[in-house]
Design goal:
324 residues, Spore Coat Polysaccharide Biosynthesis Protein SpsA, Chain A, 9-stranded mixed β-sheet, two-stranded antiparallel sheet
Length: 324
């Protein structure tokens, strides 16, 4: 088995340096490699990668990708990698000391196709009072904007997703489902996401075995800027946009818009959030009030995108009718 660790990076040399230092400590075997994709950074990312490559225990391969966005960079790194197992992580992640060894042990079972691991926070400062990411020993929806993940004990992944900070997949499986969708994933100026969810969904839908394994652990850097209410509201808004895009894409493949314009559960979120939120605040339950605010922000993003997509679909239908 050969393992290709693939990382994308953009203008985060200090974090990248720490990530590569931790990867240097891993136990590798012949054929393993680390691929770092520089997504057209304007800082000294190139020199940081070159310095880290000196004396690195396996080949550390730099790649330059000018197309902006994580998914184009990730696809470029995967394309040039050579391992039969793809180990994906990020430039702001510290993997556990036994991360590569755990990957090798888990994937010695040929039936495993995709594994998502636990992602814990590495806080720049303690989390604010309104931000509660854990409940009953597992991470809840408020952990999602920070790309944290903990589903509990080892279990099938089911309809849930792994996150790109700690996602391992066999190359043949990756290739068989067409890789990561280029129209999804973080783009500069937006918080569009969904590439991980879409990929895991397609792998599971193809009948492959997907698992969550908590012993496969990493820590994800959480800067102060991402533990602010404004960032959270923006993230959940874009999460709503992403979900609407995924549903519209499914509908488009069937030749019609997908589902109801505004699902009832989202209407309930919007209508009920102000009253419940005030009640939670008056009762000193800041975390519960924040969760309701995120639900409403998600709903507004979702509804806005669905309306935009329906208008686009209607214009297309009119154009076809006019030509006929």
């Amino acid at each position: 088995m050969s393992i290709s660790v693939v990382i994308t990076t953009y203008n985060r040399v200090a974090l990248l340096d720490a990530t590569l230092a931790q990867l240097r400590r891993q136990h590798y075997e012949p054929g393993d490699e680390v691929v770092v994709v520089d997504n057209a950074s304007s800082d000294n990312t190139e020199s940081v990668i070159a310095r880290a490559a000196v004396g690195f225990p396996v080949p550390l391969r730099p790649v330059r990708e000018s197309a902006p966005g994580k998914t184009p960079a990730l696809n470029a790194g995967i394309a040039v990698s050579s391992g039969d197992t793809l180990a994906l992580t990020d430039d702001d992640v510290l993997v556990a000391d036994d991360w590569v060894a755990t990957i090798r042990r888990l994937f010695s079972d040929p039936a495993r196709a995709l594994v998502g691991g636990r992602v814990d926070p590495l806080w720049e400062r303690p989390a604010p009072r309104w931000l509660r990411v854990e409940r009953q020993g597992r991470y809840n929806q408020m952990a999602s904007p920070l790309a944290l993940l903990h589903y509990g004990e080892a279990q099938p992944l089911g309809a849930r997703t792994a996150v790109g900070a700690n996602l391992i997949v066999r190359r043949r499986v990756h290739d068989s489902v067409g890789g990561f969708a280029p129209h999804l994933g973080r783009r500069r100026g937006t918080l569009l996401c969904g590439e991980d969810h879409d990929f895991c969904e397609r792998v599971a839908g193809a009948g492959y075995r997907c698992e969550y394994r908590p012993e496969l652990r990493v820590r994800h850097w959480v800067p102060v800027s991402r533990a602010r209410l404004r960032y959270y509201l923006r993230w959940f808004f874009w999460s709503g946009v992403t979900n609407a895009m995924l549903e519209e894409a499914a509908g488009a493949s069937a030749g019609e818009p997908g589902g109801r314009l505004v699902p009832r559960y989202l209407l309930r979120r919007i209508v009920g959030a102000p009253f419940s939120g005030v009640s939670h605040l008056l009762g000193g339950r800041q975390a519960d009030a924040a969760t309701l605010a995120m639900d409403a922000s998600f709903a507004f993003g979702y509804i806005g995108e669905r309306i935009k997509s329906r208008l686009h679909f209607a214009r297309g239908a009119q154009a076809v009718a006019h030509k006929a």
